Amino acid sequence: MELNKILDGLKQIILKEEVSQKEIEKFQKFFERFHLINRSYLDKETFKKAKGSISSMSEAISDTLKYLEEEMTRLRNKRMKQPYENVELAEMQKVQNKNEILIKELFEEYLR
User: How would you label 46-79 residue by residue, b for 16+ Cβ within 10 Å and e otherwise?
Assistant: First the structure.
């Protein structure tokens, strides 16, 4: 899944004119699940600060996804990797795959 598609989808959710309390709670639950998957890349302080509004949560999500993409690209392009860097890259790819599945589930819920 492309990062731009994800960000566009998050913007559409934010720009929705009528956001009910139920939708906000649903997005907060999604954000909590996202944080559990991305604990290594989304610190607790940022998580707590962002939990206040949908826009701040989506910004934290997009920043985390951008960071993961940049780090994975950096590690892939590095010629001589240390053994721990290969493990780190594999872990990042697993997390990214989980993120894609989680975000697809969210979009399916909002598109119904």
Answer: bbeebeeebeebbbbbeebbeebeeebeebeeee
